Amino acid sequence: MEFRVKVSTIYACSLERAFKTPMLCDISKVHTGFIVMPAITHCTGDEHWGKPGYSKTCFAAKSLLFGGGEVSSDTVLERVENQYWKIQVADFKMNMIGFTRFVGEWQTTEVAPGQVRIDYTYTLHADVPVLYPLNWLFANTFWRIYMGRVLENIRQMAYHEEPYQYD
Q1: What pLDDT, on a 0 to 100 scale, did the predictor assign at position 105?
Q2: Which parts of 3-131 fold into alpha helices (H)?
Q3: How many C-beta atoms lie closer than 10 Å to residue 19's C-beta?
Q4: Residue among 105, 99, 112 at smallest CA distance from 23
Q5: Residues 26-53: what's their mean pLDDT?
Q6: CATH of 2-27+76-159 among 3.30.530.20, 3.30.160.40, 2.40.70.10, 1.10.1040.10
Q7: What is the edge-to-edge ordering of all strands in the sheet holding 2-11?
């Protein structure tokens, strides 16, 4: 079963900054945690991050439901420069209530000079039918709120021209 969540906004910055910031900047400033979602602290194996087909291992702080440490792997599935990213988050090391992987998409569209529309979408994949009602609730409430928080973290990083960590 798939649960799809989409949020959109406008960033007042360059197209390049809106495109590169979420994937190429410090992930610990993007995924800062929220209630049961632990904050990402760092990644390893990320020498080629940002290039399709490459992965990194993510680590998270302790949270209400996670003891800290390795939490998942992220893989770049697709990159179309200044337009589109598609990544997969999988190999979860914490209880994800039946979710097996998350597929994230980040689409940037310049609507005017210095005005970029962001369409941020996650498809959450689950495989335990008895948990589907809980999965739906998680995706359409908690995850939607979390995605909004991530959008705002990235907005601030883009506006402050946060340095890129990757090419």
Answers
A1: 98
A2: 15-24
A3: 25
A4: 105
A5: 95
A6: 3.30.530.20
A7: 2-11, 115-126, 99-112, 84-90, 69-80, 55-60, 40-44
